[in-house]
Design goal:
With 613 residues, the chain is mostly helical. The chain folds into two domains: 255 residues, MetI-like (MetI-like fold), CATH 1.10.3720.10; 208 residues, MetI-like (MetI-like fold), CATH 1.10.3720.10. The chain has 28 helices and no strands. The longest helix has 36 residues. It starts with a helix and ends in a 10-residue tail after the last helix.
Length: 613
């Protein structure tokens, strides 16, 4: 009797549970936020995770051109041939170990020097009474706005020798005997990269110094500690996380960079891991190049892991009490004038020097002869002359330049808009899903491209999209592939900008719109987008400038018919046509600086605070 009485209740519970599950599924797949998350996860998986797995998989499969080296193998068969060749063969030293040691040495030196310069200038800007801070704070970060490989071209213009460079540099033209190790090889690569990447340390350390509670240092003074003790025991431990982050960030960028080692190393047969990978792929040793790319990715991932382990505990530091008053600026005293002079000289060498050198060199008809009667506009607009570089016309008189310039501007415009829109959407997911699994998952997935050096990322997309994929045809040599790889690679930066933007828009505004009956699209279009306008413009210009100077990412993807200005400068330089290469570099500098100025003028936002690529 009792069982008969409880049976209907059991049916009722099961029916109720089924209805709850049904309603949960319906809500999950009709909620606009959930739909955006699902689309984002599917897209990020296909565009980031799948290409990475596919590239790694390729390194374990036999290819047609290597069947004669792998007895009994068929195309696509599992093999360890490429890894054995890379790690344990007679050519392993030249293919991997020597370039890897070169890269590690360069990355460590660049990181240490960049931290020293960036941290010192940050301390001067934030904690000293140095005059002219408004000027210096802008001038210090401008070197980052220039492509790093432009600085390497300026270096060659000054230091190159006739034996390798083909024409004398500025010092050689003056009769100065320049040693080859000063023109090419590890030393110039380290110095040029340091002049580029010290901006990372400056931005991170200055932000950390500005946020330190001044009461801590004031209490140290009350306790009788001198300035050096306060710096060593209070200030340094608090900014150490920023310093460690700067080190890992600079190390990861330096070890995978391609442009500077290519300009300053390859002609002297000095290879880094990135230039060796490029050389392998260009020599049709594609699978070996992918294996090198995999190692490069593992190193970058290890760097990030070390960073998290090193500063994870320190990230939880907190101070108890009020914000405190403004920290007392330390007087530079008698060193004030000397420090200002040294900083001006440093800015001249790191900022104005390369630009002046490149510009002057473009007007010298005969390289290495710096006199007024040698002044010419030939490399800018002159007609082809058989006696000058085999009849190559001036850059503006070259129809190929206008085609390439059009390709470049089209690429950066389309990529900037698409990447910024995607970044805003991902930022919306991250801000509204803060604390949720979905928001954390999307944030982690979109961060993956940041771990992968640009040239390795280009290799991944070359591997995946050089053949048909599902409903997508082969994209090799197409403009679409260049847009796709540029958008995905810059998603970490655009999404970071989007997250920062969306966090400033209160969810209460959307809730109020929902109460009034506005749909999700109406709320997004009439509330979210208008309020995020300035951040959208700032993020768009940041991506524009970053892609405009990009060489590493597209070096493996470009074709003669689908070219960009950075690659045009690279090919000119490789052909020993330095004046033409310098003209293209100066044009790019003007374009980049113009859009940097436009960003500040239009959005009233200092995008230097968001630099990352």
């Amino acid at each position: 009797m009792r069982e008969n009485q409880t049976q209907p209740d059991l049916y009722q519970e099961e029916f109720s549970m089924a209805r709850k599950i049904k309603n949960a599924f319906r809500n999950a797949f009709t909620n606009p936020y959930n739909l955006i998350v699902i689309v984002a996860i599917v897209a990020l998986t296909y565009l980031i995770v799948v290409p990475l797995i596919e590239m790694i998989t390729v390194t374990f499969q036999a290819t047609q051109q290597d069947l004669r080296r792998i007895p009994g193998a068929q195309v696509g068969d599992f093999t360890l041939f490429y890894w054995n060749r890379l790690l344990f063969s007679d050519v392993s030293s030249s293919l991997l170990y020597k370039p890897l040691m070169n890269s590690l040495g360069i990355a460590i030196c660049v990181s240490v020097l960049s931290i020293a310069i960036g941290s010192a200038t940050a301390w001067l800007m934030v904690r000293s009474d140095m005059p002219g801070k408004k000027f210096f704070s802008l001038a210090i970060i401008i070197p980052y706005m220039l492509p790093s490989w432009c600085k390497s071209m300026a270096w060659l213009t000054v230091f190159k020798t006739e034996r390798i460079g083909g024409s004398p540099g500025f010092l050689s033209a003056l009769g100065v005997q320049v040693p080859e190790w000063l023109a090419y090889g590890p030393l110039p690569i380290i110095l040029v990269l340091t002049l580029h990447y010290y901006a990372y340390a400056y931005l991170l350390v200055s932000a950390s110094l500005s946020s330190i509670n001044s009461e801590l240092e004031e209490m140290g003074e009350i306790a009788g500690a001198n300035k050096l003790q306060i710096l060593r025991r209070i200030t340094l431990p608090l900014v150490l996380p920023a310093i460690l982050s700067s080190f890992i960030l600079t190390f990861s960028k330096s070890i995978g960079t391609f442009g500077v080692p290519a300009f300053l190393g390859m002609k002297a047969n000095f290879f880094t891991i990135s230039t060796r990978m490029y050389s392998s792929i260009r020599q049709q040793q594609t699978t070996t190049g992918y294996a090198i790319a995999t190692i490069l990715i593992l190193i970058s991932s290890l760097n990030v892991y070390i960073n998290q382990r090193a500063i994870g505990a320190r990230k939880s530091y907190a101070t108890i009490g009020g914000k405190g008053g403004r920290s007392t600026l330390i007087s530079l005293g008698k060193w004030r004038v000397l420090i200002v002079v040294l900083l001006v000289l440093f800015i001249f060498v790191g900022v104005m020097g390369p630009l002046i050198i490149l510009t002057v060199d473009t007007f010298m008809l005969k390289p290495g002869v710096y006199s007024l009667d040698n002044f010419s506009l030939h490399y800018w607009s002159g007609a082809g002359n058989p006696d000058i570089y085999e009849g190559e016309p001036g850059v503006f008189a070259n129809s190929r330049f206008w085609q390439i310039a059009g390709n470049t501007l089209k690429l950066v415009l389309i990529t900037s808009i698409v990447a910024t829109v995607c970044g805003q959407i991902i930022g919306y997911i991250a801000s509204r899903g803060r604390g949720k699994f979905s928001g954390k998952l999307v944030e982690q997935m979109v961060f993956i491209p940041y771990l992968i050096p640009s040239i390795a990322f280009g290799a991944i997309y070359l591997s995946m999209f050089s053949k048909p994929q599902l409903l997508i045809p082969s994209l090799y040599g197409t403009f679409t592939l260049m847009v796709l790889v540029s958008v995905v690679k810059h998603l970490p930066f655009s999404s970071r900008s989007g997250t920062s933007n969306m966090m400033q828009i209160g969810i209460e505004l959307e809730e109020a719109g929902s109460i009034e009956g506005a749909s999700f699209l109406q709320r997004f279009g009439r509330i979210v987008l208008p309020l995020s306008k300035n951040g959208f413009i700032s993020g768009l210009m940041l991506i524009f400038i970053s892609i405009m100077k990009e060489l590493d990412l597209i070096i493996l993807i470009v074709t003669p018919s689908m070219n960009t200005l950075p690659y045009m400068a690279f090919t000119y330089s490789n052909s020993n046509m330095a004046p033409y290469s310098n003209v293209v570099a100066v044009i790019m500098f003007v374009i980049v600086l113009f859009f940097y100025w436009l960003t500040n003028k239009v959005s009233k936002t200092d995008i230097s605070k968001s630099l990352g690529g």
